[in-house]
Every structure is written in C-alpha cells, then in structure tokens.
Design goal:
Blueprint: E1 19-25, E2 29-36, E3 45-47, E4 50-56, E5 58-63, E6 69-74, E7 79-82, E8 85-92, E9 98-105
Antiparallel strand pairs: 1-2, 2-9, 3-8, 4-7, 4-9, 5-6, 5-8
Length: about 110
C-alpha cells in the first residue's frame, strides 16, 4: 500500500496596507500623511486635485480597474501639483518606504 503524501497548505501572503493619517480636515482642504512600506498597497482611492511633497521618495504604481497601470517616481523633497485621478489602487513597487505629505483641495 502506498502512503499518501501530505500536501502542505499554501498560506496566502498578507499585503501590508498603506498608512494614511489625517493631519487637518476642514471645508476647504484635507491634509494627509501617507507612509507605504515596500510592497504595501492602498485600498481603492479616488484622488482629488492635490499638492504633494515627498518627505522620502520612491516608486509607486497606480493600478486601475481593467488592469491598466502607471509608475510614478518621487524624489525626496520633490513637490508636485496633480490633477484628480479616478478610482485606483496604489502600490509601493520600490524597495524603500515612501513617505508623502499631501494637501487635497475640496
């Protein structure tokens, strides 16, 4: 009689979540601080017009419904003005932790 091999159960890898903390929220702006470790992802987000400063830069990938994606590189200290972006997931596709400070205009 042959012994049956035990098949090890595959563990689903947990994806770390981006950490987004509100700094200030009022009727004109929402100011947030975002920290993303390598490989971490956001929930689906829709971003308004905003100004972002990279406190610690790195590479992000925006992933849109349907599979379209785009890479975004931030240099430490860089400040950007960005138009609104439809719903997507953001992933830290680089090797270092990214730390951003954003002012969302309402």
């Amino acid at each position: 009689m042959k012994k049956k091999k035990k098949v090890a159960k595959k563990k689903t890898a947990k994806v770390a979540k981006a950490v987004m903390n509100d700094i200030l929220v009022n009727d004109k702006v929402r100011v947030v601080e975002v920290v993303m470790k390598p490989g971490s992802e956001s929930d689906g987000v829709e971003l308004p017009v905003r100004v972002t400063r990279a406190l610690k830069g790195g590479t992000l990938t925006r992933i849109f419904p349907g599979g379209k994606s785009e890479k975004i590189k931030f240099k430490t200290g860089e400040v950007r003005f960005s138009d609104a972006v439809s719903t997507h997931v953001v992933k830290n596709s680089g090797r270092s932790t990214i730390h951003l400070y954003s002012v969302f205009l309402k």
